[in-house]
Amino acid sequence: MKELKNRGGARIGAGRKKALEATKVLRVPESRIIDIKEYLKSSKNGNEIIDIRQFDPITKIEIPLAVERVQAGFPSPAQDYIDKKLDLNEFLIHNANATFIVRANSLSMLNAGIDINDALIVDRSIEAQHRDIVVACVDNEFTLKRLIIDAKGCWLKAENEGYSDIHPVDGQEFEIWGVVTNVIKKFR
User: Which residues does the annotation mark as catalytic?
Assistant: First the structure.
């Protein structure tokens, strides 16, 4: 008979991880799993900003700039003339040290043309004014809204009726983090 060797025992990092709080199994109909996952991904309760990165002014790419403006109709072949090149850094960025690129994570500004995953250029050196689209920090959560300044003070307006406006109350942490200057949107 073969002798059994001592195997197993406690190993550092092995086994099921302990949860920081109690967990509970939730049963849902299989037909609703995809809907629930999509809802959780686009939850209105989380940060409305996915990613924040500081702008890197070192890169320089010049793109040909057509002289004529483009009409929404049929273009003229005679207007196929390139006059100069455009550096997107000069066109989009005014203060590189205070400029960040953030990604939207909700549809709260859909009627302003901002979709989930759109890249927003945010300048923190600009003082926010009435009707600017801003990134604000409300109770340690980033949100993207239109700043409204009126007789009652300042508040944040959602540009989608499915989302609530934010009216700061006394004692609530509220800070305008930066002003959105441009939206970079991919069509393909």
Answer: 108, 145
